[in-house]
Amino acid sequence: MANSSNKISFFLNFALVLSLLLLLITIAEGRSLFGCDLFKPSSTLSCDKVVGVKSDDTCFGLAKTFNLTETVFDAINPNLNCTALFVGQWLCIDGSIN
Ligand SMILES: *[C@@H]1O[C@H](CO)[C@@H](O)[C@H](O)[C@H]1NC(C)=O
Ligand SMILES: *[C@@H]1O[C@H](CO)[C@@H](O)[C@H](O)[C@H]1NC(C)=O
């Protein structure tokens, strides 16, 4: 009787320790993810070359002209609305993100 109750309490303690450990790991991971999210917007984008939009230019066409992948083009032109390009708008066609 006492023996089985000891086993149960040992198991409960073990489960408690395990769940606390998992909780701590979750918190630690959450913090690092949060820190990463905080860091991302503060990464600096430097644009080395810009081009002015001419009539009939499209994001796709410009990316192709300057040999940029869509991913790179989007990365160096954050918050760009490609359906609302206007003539004379400056687009980045060469840059780096640090
Ligand atoms: C475009 O990129 C490809 C592959 O990197 C390269 O071979 C080609 O010369 C580039 N073209 C221009 C116009 O830069
Ligand atoms: C992009 O521009 C178009 C045309 O002005 C507009 O309808 C659309 O809502 C814009 N999209 C975003 C994400 O701002």
Structure report:
This is LysM domain-containing protein. Residues 1-30 form the signal peptide. GO terms for molecular function: chitin binding. Keywords: Chitin-binding, Signal, Virulence. InterPro entries: LysM (IPR018392), LysM1-like (IPR052210), LysM_dom_sf (IPR036779). It is rod-shaped, with a radius of gyration of 27 Å. It has a two-stranded antiparallel sheet. 8% of the residues are buried. The chain is 53% helix and 16% strand. With 98 residues, the protein is an alpha+beta fold. It has 2 domains: 1-40, no CATH class; 45-97, LysM domain (Membrane-bound Lytic Murein Transglycosylase D, Chain A). The structure holds 2-acetamido-2-deoxy-beta-D-glucopyranose (2 copies).
